[in-house]
């Protein structure tokens, strides 16, 4: 079995190399000197990062008592988090309403197939394309970013949810149908409670994803830190762009850490502690003592 797996992986890697060679036109020499060019660009244009992004701005007028909150860095990151939070919540509501309709074990194909097509259609367009569409519809700003990320969240999260519902144990579903419960009652009282850990974990993951992606949609004018990254790149202020990238990296790391802690409360393995060397040694001693007593 393992030989077949390794053989398949080797074949796929070989095929991928052929595809990349075709895309590169057989000219692998393009990689020569690329790293040196990157080092020169980094040293001359991006380093050191320009922390002026955290200096308070004079316009628009900021009424906060803390000067830090009046900076471009703080205000843009705060707006990015707002976009991610609002779109995650609204997208989750839309997904939890549609995903039970798409699950094959909950609805017939007459209902499930059209809903699946709808979710696939929403998900087929990246959030960046949705952002461009809503910028045209409602104009520049964070509101268009919220609408774009909400739609993409519905499509992405809806797929995760209905696949989770389809993978659940059929016993509780059959028991609910035997009791004469309606589809709504089965979904509300059996399916969602049975899969609550997975649903909450998916919700936290989606918020992480939306925070990262909200920095991208701002490039097309949908608000957030991406808007300033795009402007600074046009003006060739690469040292400020690098400072914003460092800020994004730090915020994402913090969110990942907080999400890891939050998932431990909704994950079935959250209460399972990693064994320590001391506990292993104590168990070995207990086994030896019990074996001596048995002799």
Architecture overview:
The chain is built from twelve helices and no strands. The model is unreliable at 270-278 (pLDDT under 50). The protein is mainly alpha-helical and 295 residues long. The protein has a single domain, classed as MetI-like (MetI-like fold). It has helices spanning 2-23, 34-46, 72-102, 109-124, 127-138, 142-166, 170-178, 183-194, 196-217, 225-234, 238-266, 277-294.
What keywords describe this structure?
mainly alpha, single chain, MetI-like fold
Total number of beta strands: 0
Query: Globular, elongated, flat, extended or rod-shaped: what is the shape?
Result: globular
Mean pLDDT level:
78
Number of helices: 12
Question: Low-confidence parts lasting 5 or more residues at pLDDT below 50?
Answer: 270-278
Along the chain, the helix and strand elements come as HHHHHHHHHHHH
Rg: 26 Å
Structural class label: mainly alpha
CATH topology: MetI-like fold
CATH evolutionary superfamily: MetI-like
Helix percentage range:
over 70%
CATH class: Mainly Alpha
């Amino acid at each position: 079995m393992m030989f077949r797996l390794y053989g398949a992986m080797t074949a796929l890697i070989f095929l991928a190399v052929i595809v990349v060679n075709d895309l590169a036109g057989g000219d692998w020499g393009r990689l020569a000197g690329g790293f040196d060019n990157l080092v020169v660009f980094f040293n001359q244009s991006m380093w050191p990062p320009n922390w002026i992004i955290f200096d308070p701005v004079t316009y628009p007028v900021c009424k906060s008592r803390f000067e830090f909150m009046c900076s471009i860095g703080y205000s843009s990151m705060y707006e990015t988090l707002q976009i991610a939070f609002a779109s995650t919540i609204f997208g989750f509501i839309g997904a939890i309403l549609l995903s039970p309709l798409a699950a094959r074990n909950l609805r017939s194909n007459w209902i499930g197939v059209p809903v699946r097509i709808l979710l696939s259609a929403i998900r087929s367009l990246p959030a960046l394309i949705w952002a461009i569409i809503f910028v045209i519809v409602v104009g520049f700003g964070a509101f268009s970013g919220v609408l774009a990320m909400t739609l993409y969240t519905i499509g992405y999260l809806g797929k995760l949810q209905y696949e989770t519902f389809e993978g659940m144990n059929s016993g509780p579903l059959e028991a609910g149908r035997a009791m004469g419960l309606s589809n709504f009652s089965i979904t509300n009282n059996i399916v969602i409670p049975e899969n609550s850990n997975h649903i909450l974990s998916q919700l936290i993951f989606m918020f992480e994803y939306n925070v990262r992606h909200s920095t991208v949609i701002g490039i097309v004018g949908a608000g957030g830190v991406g808007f300033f990254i795009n402007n600074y790149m046009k003006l060739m202020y690469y040292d400020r762009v690098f400072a914003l990238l460092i800020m994004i990296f730090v915020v994402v790391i913090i969110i990942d850490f907080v999400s890891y802690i939050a998932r431990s409360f909704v994950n079935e393995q959250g209460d399972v502690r990693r064994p320590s060397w001391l506990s292993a040694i104590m168990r070995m001693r207990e086994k030896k003592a019990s074996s001596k007593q048995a002799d």
